[in-house]
Amino acid sequence: MEPLFKSYVFVRVLDKEQTAVKQVSGVLNFVSYLGKPAIIRDEEIDTIKLFLNEYPNIRLERLEFNVNDRVRILSGPLMTMEGDVLEVKHKTVKVLLPSLGFTMIAEVEKNNLVK
Asked: Do 78 and 42 form a contact (C-beta atoms < 8 A)?
């Protein structure tokens, strides 16, 4: 089984510890967002875990995108979560985790979304 986020390691460090992390062999840099190291909230990590348990066949796409409709999911492991939808085709919905810059893709019934 391959890791979902290839070449990524998630760390919880203080600002003053960042230099030490960058000195670890194999570490290139932190993922950054708006010029600062990206902060992935515990809620986002938990959501990824739930998502992986519910949808076994997912993939990641790195996209440059424009944010469209704001939606709330009505049921399932992501119930009550709100997010920005990038695209909806048939049953495929692209859900954005902005701090990672990735889109997780899963098949979700259209009637399971509300604006």
From this structure: no
Contact between 85 and 71 under an 8 Å Cβ cutoff? The reply is: yes
DSSP 64-78: ------EEEE-SSTT
* Helix or strand (DSSP H, E) at 20: helix 18-22
For residue 48, which amino acid is it? I
pTM of the model: 0.51
- CA nearest neighbour of 103 among 112, 113, 114, 92: 92
- Which spans in 30-102 are helix H? 42-54
Of residues 26 and 6, more confidence is placed in 26
